[in-house]
3-dehydroquinate synthase (Sphingobium nicotianae), 371 residues
Amino acid sequence: MTPTTTIVPVALGERSYEVVIQAGLLDRAGEALAPFATSRPFLVITDAHVGPAQWPRLQASLERAGLAAELVTLPAGESTKSWQQLEALTDRMIEHGIERRDHVIALGGGVIGDLVGFAAAIVKRGCNFIQIPTTLLAQVDSSVGGKTAINSRAGKNLLGAFHQPSLVLIDPDTLDTLGPREVRAGYAEVVKYGLIDDLAFFDYCEANGPALLAGKAEARAYAIAKSVAAKAAIVAEDERETSGRRALLNLGHTFGHALEAETGFSDKLLHGEAVAAGMALAFGYSVRRGECSGQDVGRVVAHLRASGLPASLADAGVRASGARLVEHMLHDKKMSAGTLPFLLARGIGQTYLAKDVDLADVAAFLDETSD
Ligand SMILES: NC(=O)c1ccc[n+]([C@@H]2O[C@H](COP(=O)([O-])OP(=O)(O)OC[C@H]3O[C@@H](n4cnc5c(N)ncnc54)[C@H](O)[C@@H]3O)[C@@H](O)[C@H]2O)c1
Ligand SMILES: O=C(O)C(=O)C[C@@H](O)[C@H](O)[C@H](O)COP(=O)(O)O
Ligand SMILES: [Zn+2]
């Protein structure tokens, strides 16, 4: 029996592409990749954890389809989104003789996807890439939408480009080899879609989060398809985050990126964990402004904690002063004419972009917030 296939189109005119979601898809990826093959072998870029776990499946599938490929394995972890790794990867692509029409393949989580996408954006002023995301976070968020980046010393994703993939292949079964902490971190970005504008989906998360985190196929497939559809719709409306619509996807990220900067982009705090704490802080700050009920923030915090995610500075293990965290925030890419707009909420599913936030007040809130 053929497994259920969900295809989500990302409608971006000549940059349009499909996100294909199907259990076991990695074993059939060769067929899907065949139309993108050229005379050169595909370069497949992965990391030291994903390679041993998932490359044999992709390799066998490529071989069955008669397609040649060479594997490039980079170190695992956030520190791979660096100048050093970008240089090594772009050198390797050029040495491979890559042409603009060629596709490189990102097989991995958000780190590999963001780095490979950025390399593809700049080599020969732009060649093509395909995303095969292998973490929950990458399947529900980072593989779709074309934000690519590395980190700079000053902050998160400060060097990058908008560069859309040509195809995204999602096999939820690849999550079977992912560690539980990484699954939970990805789940934070799932919950984000409910908090942004979909109360019914947040209700679904409260009821089905435990099944999803336990790897139940039905909950996993539903949450991935729902999240990808939500992201694709927003990206199609505002590809380059100019109208304010795409900025909604940044809920929890201004706080979250500051926490990641404070913990040195290390394994101490994963991106999804930082976003979880950041979303709880955004809701907490919305309560302080009298815009959101204490009951709603209570639900958000309770669900994040029940899912094993941090929902406060203390949970995230961050002790920095409010002023120091606000200093990190000054590098946020939403900063405009000296003002930093914040994603705040009038309730669950009612996120909006607030343009009147006083950073001194944010610092005071962070100093006062204890749990
Ligand atoms: N471009 C975007 O729109 C966007 C969106 C969200 C997050 N991001 C970025 O994504 C990054 C985080 O991505 P992530 O959470 O996927 O982290 P990650 O890529 O570091 O993966 C997490 C860990 O899981 C391992 N791993 C991945 N897939 C595996 C598998 N199937 N089996 C076993 N191990 C596996 C990796 O080696 C790594 O150790 C951050 O840098 C964040 O900024 C980008
Ligand atoms: O796709 C988007 O737009 C997002 O904001 C998704 C976020 O989950 C993601 O972490 C993104 O990389 C953050 O973007 P940035 O512009 O704040 O670096
Ligand atoms: Zn994110």
